[in-house]
Amino acid sequence: MSFDKFADRHIGVSETDLKEMLAVIGVSSVDELIGQVIPASIRLRKPIGLPAEGMTEYEFAAHVRELAAKNRQVRSFIGMGWYPTATPAVIMRNVFENAAWYTSYTPYQAEISQGRLEALLNFQTMTISLTGMEIGNCSLLDDASAAAEAMLMMFALRSRDQVKNGCNQLFVDDDIFPQVFDVLVTRSEPFGIEIIRDNYDTYKFTGKEFGAIVQYPSASGRIRDYAAFAAAAHEAGAKVTAVCDLMSLVLLASPGQWGADIAVGSAQRFGLPMGFGGPTAGFMTTKEAYKRNMPGRIIGVSVDRLGNKALRMALQTREQHIKREKATSNICTASALVASMSGFYAVYHGAEGLRRIAQHIHSHTAAVADALRELGYEVAAGNYFDTLQVKAEAAVVQDSALARNINFFYPDESTVRMSFDEVTTADEVAQVVAVFAEAAGKKAPKSVKVDEGKVAIDGALLRTDKILDAPVFDKYHSETEMMRYIKRLERRDISLADSMIPLGSCTMKLNAAVEMMPLSLAEFTNIHPFAPASQTEGYLEMIRELEHDLAAITGFAGCSLQPESGASGEYTGLMTIRAYHQSRGQGYRTTILIPASAHGTNPASAAMAGMKIVIVNSDEHGNIDVEDFKAKAAANAAELCGAMITYPSTHGVFESKIRELVDAVHDAGGLVFMDGANMNAQVGLTNPGYIGADVCHLNLHKTFAMPHGGGGPGVGPICVAEHLVKFLPSHSVVPTGGEEGITAVFASPYGNALLLPITYGYIKMLGADGLRRVTEMAIVNANYMAKALEGEFRTYYTGENGRVGHEMILDLQNFRKDYGVEVADIARRLMDYGFHAPTLSFPVHDTLMVEPTESESKEEMDRFMEALVSIKRECEAIENHEDNVVVNAPHTALEVAGEWNHPYTRMQAAYPLEWISRAKFFPYVSKIDNGYGDRNLVCTCCEF
């Protein structure tokens, strides 16, 4: 083994341990095992078209710095939804760059996620307070997609009479960001929603509208009183959504105050870098009456077994993966990590600190506005917060601005738009004024006075109520206290920094430090997504390379990096298929086949794409019922759009008849979407293109090493065959996508671009040989665990040769009957052993789906299996079904140290195995009462 190779650092099993594992599996070599797992008919005949050898870590670090240096840092006043920020170092260092925060999983296991849950509750509280609403979620993806979610939420909230009367119109004010409008167009089309774009001030409601969307402040910077407009909308039966600048709401009257029903936007200004467009933290807040219609995750307050307050994700039956084809959203991955950062930003600054920041932004804007008027320029807005729109010859202004290393936004040839931010200085104000003076042929003033107390906003438009009055926002304003608060929350969570997270279908692999380091480089963080291409050569080179590499790995011709999550990748792939059929005059093809075993995101995404969903049965072995699939493909041939197939299957098995399924769809005139959630079992050995699919999506936060970040952010690119390349998503501001590309699916032209160096580095350092070896070892590890556990747990599904793919399903269906123990009790008991549980009861009820990934060592896998077997022995020894070590799990340190009246010992509760004492993790709370939290919904901060 050569540790010059990145693969040897990334893969956890040594060559010595591998020999022992192969002996347990019962094969003589890795090749022999792979031959038993993957059907020969779909094995690649030649290596993927990438260099065989990868870079070393040192070489990649140097290479990525060279790429970063090709990005030219120009002072951005572009605005349009992205602004330079001053990310507090205490948050950057202790959250964004901290593996304990970025490697944790979505907080479904609430008892070992209390730190992240509190951070996200802070975010919810912040957005609810600033928007003046009653309830909020713990982040969406960005402002444009949040606006689209609000549109569909208002559509779903139509009254029976409105539905009966075909009320399908949405009013959108014309002074809205173009990228937000684009996404509204994309998401409205499958539902037959008619968008009426007009001026809010003159529009007359007709009664055909179910909703209205306005931007606050508007795209051109105007602060407008929407109270009368909102009242008129409500009178006509329409609901109102405000797309908000969250920082402006520190000073302005809240949307809730003037009558909005829903508020959405981005929290990017709250300490998040621009990062060439993402990730940001989208948000949505609304009235409590609409809580069951609100998409995304909601953090709620409940109690645990001991009566302590505890946090959890509330009202989970609303979530798309549970509602499946009945979903009204396909939100899965959110933006948990960056939402936590934004929440910490608000905590660190508090209400007074945010007022100072907002006032600083506004006063510098006012200084520029006054100076430009003195120079004779027409400034559009009478009331503004941070954005000025000026009548001027754009080309002349741009030349002068670029000479001073300044970027503005140019909506047309005679308009210049600029937005100021928290890092704007008086010297920069003078430079901006000098640009316009030069463009006007006038002498610039020697200095421009900035009055930090000036408010150029009518009093009636200003906020009068308190903001952020929860105690958490008034406690941690020194760096010492903030550092300790972050650390305190960090200790309440399990992450990959603690132990193996064996979640099936989620691929919780190593997120190598060298892959993460570029995310802190200023040449990547400080770039605006609408900056001229001449300033973003490093990003664009990396994007072109990554698109090429992902296309090569998947066997396709093209790639789009715009989708910001796996579920959005599913949606985008389906929309490209839809566009393909429409281009051929076959827009009537809207029926999609989806196996019953598919991820819940599949039918939810298909519903969002306006598809008619036909469910295909599973056979007795858990595979897709081939005959049922063929029959339904033939029966729906006249209207078949395609099929969504996960491969290997959700059961972790390579189904041998996959090509028969693909052929059945193609023969019926449809196209095949392959769900790439399980690509970690394919890379280098087979691929969707070779199998015959037409499009696939990829979860870069699974197969390609991006961290899960406590629930996001993610990246969900799609790769497509040649006939779909021209339909890849476009963008109205930055040219990208195909010649006939669908309209944008997200605000940023390249999605969460700041995250792309992670996957770029993963591929470049592994090379083709390393990528194949990663897949082989993922399959080896899963089969080792399945074989090692077969005397204790039955593996629910296997392939034709008795092997699993990269994950396995362990059968615990007898535990309730034999021991009175639920599978969720097993999951909670694993917390006492220091482990996150595998995936519970999916895709089969009362099972555990385990995926070890290639990153774990034999020692760690052995520890996890020892824990599982130990818990089984505890179940077998149960005598008291009401009070035992399993059903009471997890056990907190406070309980173990306090009064004790259980029939088992404290040592059995806390240290059931000898090695646990060397690295004990104590859950912060005990078993949480989920029902209590839903019945008594509280989703803002309270004292703990």
Which percent band covers the strand fraction? 5-15%
Give the % helix. Answer: 25-40%
Q: Going by CATH, what is the homologous superfamily of the domain at 133-267 and 287-332?
A: Type I PLP-dependent aspartate aminotransferase-like (Major domain)
Strand order across the biggest sheet?
Answer: 2-8-7-6-5-3-4
Distance between the termini: 50 Å
SS content category: alpha/beta
What would the principal axes of the Cα set say about the shape? globular
Give the CATH class of the domain at 133-267 and 287-332.
Answer: Alpha Beta
Name the average pLDDT: 95
How many beta-strand segments?
24
State the CATH topology of the domain at 133-267 and 287-332.
Aspartate Aminotransferase, domain 2
Largest sheet: 7 strands, mixed
Per CATH, the architecture of the domain at 133-267 and 287-332 is 3-Layer(aba) Sandwich
Low-confidence stretches: none
Individual helix count? 32
> What is the CA-based Rg, rounded?
28 Å
Oligomer: single chain
Enzyme class: oxidoreductase
Protein name: glycine dehydrogenase (aminomethyl-transferring)
Keywords: Oxidoreductase, Pyridoxal phosphate
Family: Belongs to the GcvP family.
